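Here is the promised in-class demo. Please do not try to memorize the tokens; focus on the logic of going from shape to residues.
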């Protein structure tokens, strides 16, 4: 783009925003230069991942292989279960014996983390790996959830303690041990 064309574009850009916003600017830009900017030439598509049989689904994270995790109610229920979407198939990851679960993150090794209810009704952080959901426990309280996992398998989340505040504490789960880094 020449210096003159660049100055014209800047004038059009400012005029477009003064006279009605981005759409007007794009119309002026296309009329003057005969083309739309390259970013408008890109096309995207949306893929419906489906559900676990319920009426909705929520996607929370995606890894570099295109595997997606989130939650969706199962058939005949409004209670969500964590899912892993891979290769066009949505798989129910189950729970820790309770009624519901949600997946929040997935690393590039396909390991999934989130939170699930136990049979006693407590909510615990989980790691799903190799087809098995494992309870990560808590820092002594009744509630924890895992929010992120790196490619080394280290997990970050939050947990109540037996005596701490209701909002909980951050934790690091590494080498099979949950610790409060502070």
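The designed amino acids, position by position:
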């Amino acid at each position: 783009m020449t210096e003159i064309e660049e100055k014209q574009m800047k004038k059009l850009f400012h005029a477009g925003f003064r006279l009605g916003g981005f759409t007007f600017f794009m119309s002026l830009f296309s009329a003057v230069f005969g083309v739309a900017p390259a970013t408008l030439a890109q096309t995207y598509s949306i893929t419906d991942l489906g559900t676990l049989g319920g009426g909705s689904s929520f996607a929370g994270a995606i890894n570099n292989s295109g595997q997606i995790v989130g939650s969706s109610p199962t058939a005949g229920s409004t209670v969500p279960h964590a899912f892993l979407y891979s290769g066009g198939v949505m798989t129910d990851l189950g729970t820790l014996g309770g009624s519901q679960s949600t997946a929040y993150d997935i690393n590039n090794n396909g390991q999934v983390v989130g939170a699930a209810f136990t049979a006693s009704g407590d909510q615990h952080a989980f790691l799903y790996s190799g087809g098995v959901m494992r309870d990560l426990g808590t820092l002594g309280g009744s509630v924890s959830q895992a929010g992120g996992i790196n490619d080394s398998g280290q997990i970050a989340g939050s947990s109540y303690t037996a005596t701490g505040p209701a909002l909980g504490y951050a934790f690091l789960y590494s080498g099979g041990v949950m610790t409060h880094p502070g």
